[in-house]
Amino acid sequence: MGPNALDAMQPGPLAIDSESIRAVCQSRLAFCGLANARQALPFGTQTDRGAGARHRLYVIAPGGGYVLSPAHCVQAGTPLENLLPVCEETLGKRLK
Questions:
Q1: How far is the C-alpha of 3 from the C-alpha of 39, rounded, in Å?
Q2: Which of 10, 11, 39, 68 is the most exposed place for a label (fewest CB within 10 A)?
Q3: Mean pLDDT by 10 residues, the chain (96 residues)
C-alpha cells in the first residue's frame, strides 16, 4: 500500500531535500508542489521564480511523476505577474 505522492513540499533552507528523495524513490513516488509560496512567489524576482520552476522541471520532473504547483495556497496579495514566470516555464512560452 504505501504513499503514491508527496504533496505540498515547501522549498527553502529548512525544507525536505526533494532532490535526495527523488534519487532514492525514483519513479515510485510522485511529487506535488515545490513552487515557493512563502518567499519566491510573493516577494522574489521574476528571474528567481523562473529559475526555481526550471530547476524543478529539469531536476525533479524528468521521467514524470511531478506536478508543478505552489507548495501551499498562494498568499493573498500575490500579484498575478508573480505567477506568470512559473506558468511560462512550465508551458515553454510567454503568456503576455
A1: 28
A2: 39
A3: 74 70 82 80 82 81 80 83 82 69
Give 62-90 as a DSSP string: TTS-EEEEESSPPPTT--HHHHHHHHHHH
In the sheet that holds 66-70, the strands lie side by side as 5-9, 30-35, 66-70
Angle, helices 46-55 vs 80-91, to 10°: value is: 30
Distance CA 72, CA 44 (A): 16
Cell numbers 498568499 label which residue? 75
Cell of 87: 506558468
